[in-house]
From TrEMBL:
It comes from the Eukaryota. The keyword Transmembrane does not apply. Keywords: Disulfide bond, Glycoprotein, Immunoglobulin domain, Membrane, Signal. SMART domains: IG (SM00409), IGv (SM00406). GO terms for molecular function: signaling receptor binding. Pfam families: V-set. Its main location: membrane. Transmembrane segments: none annotated. Residues 1-18 form the signal peptide. The gene is LOC127378160. This is Ig-like domain-containing protein. The keyword Signal applies. It is found in: Membrane. GO terms for cellular component: external side of plasma membrane.
Length: 261
């Protein structure tokens, strides 16, 4: 009996001394990313049987994730976060009450409150979600017939584009130049004029580089190109690049000199 009382006292002491700690620095993310709002108890105690509340006081309803009896209570959850949040079930046994938000939106920006009501613990954390814009080029790209051209296009600020669909189109030639997603190029709808002559820099897409490489340029390629990310969470989903193609005979003009008699 004395042992049980001592154990209970130790548990109560641990609960009383534990602190709920969230990051003091704002968490920053780009729209479309997954983000983890880090929060934990120190020293660690299991909270697997506790109610865990994540809220945003500025919203109605305010509950982002309401965890009770080992599961998410959907009837408490703000609809805009439906199927977009989770806790780490294994982590609840080891102090971790962090929350993951999938595919964050600019509207997710705000201060989040984490609370353990039965332990009378709470802490807050700030999330800032920015959006990336598609940036083309103000200056035309000029090449000579037969050369290769790189049409620059990128995301600012940089954002991982590997899972996004990226489409390149010519302003006159209606079928697409190319379409790519998940490191795979979809060329079934590609115009015959561009077949076998287009590629993107897949290894650079993680850093937001979605430029197009066009090989063996012809005079028919001249014109305006559009780089489009249709499902990007941004007001600017398209970038524009003008391609100027010079005839082949202009290649050596720069090296010609006039004879002076």
């Amino acid at each position: 009996m004395k042992f049980l009382l001592l154990l209970m006292c130790l548990c109560l002491t641990d609960d009383a001394n534990s602190q709920l700690i969230c990051s003091h620095q704002p968490i920053t993310a780009l729209a479309g990313d997954d983000v983890i709002l880090q929060c934990h108890l120190e020293p660690p105690i299991s909270v697997s049987d506790e109610t865990v509340e994540w809220t945003r006081p500025d919203l109605d309803p305010k509950y982002i994730h309401f965890h009770q009896d080992g599961r998410l209570m959907f009837d408490h959850q703000n609809p805009s976060y439906y199927l977009r949040t989770r806790l780490f079930m294994d982590g609840l046994m080891k102090r971790n009450v962090s929350m993951k938000i999938f595919k964050v939106k600019v509207s997710d920006t705000g201060r989040y409150q984490c609370a353990l009501p039965s332990l009378q613990k709470e802490a807050s954390i700030q999330l800032i979600v920015a959006q990336s814009d598609v940036i083309g080029s103000d200056k035309p790209v000029t090449v000579t017939v037969g050369d290769n051209a790189i049409l620059p296009c990128h995301l600012e600020p940089p954002s991982d584009m590997r899972t996004q669909t990226v489409e390149w189109k010519h302003n006159v030639i209606k079928p697409s130049c190319m379409s790519t997603r998940n490191r795979k190029d979809y060329l079934d709808l590609q115009d015959e004029n561009f077949r076998g002559r287009t590629s993107v820099f897949h290894e650079e897409m993680i850093r937001g580089n979605i430029s197009l490489k066009l090989t063996n340029v012809t005079e028919l390629d001249a014109g305006s190109f559009t780089c489009n990310v249709p499902k990007l969470q941004s007001q600017v989903r398209r970038g524009f690049i003008n391609l100027t193609v010079e005839p082949e005979e202009s290649r050596n003009k720069g090296g010609q000199t006039d004879d002076i008699g």
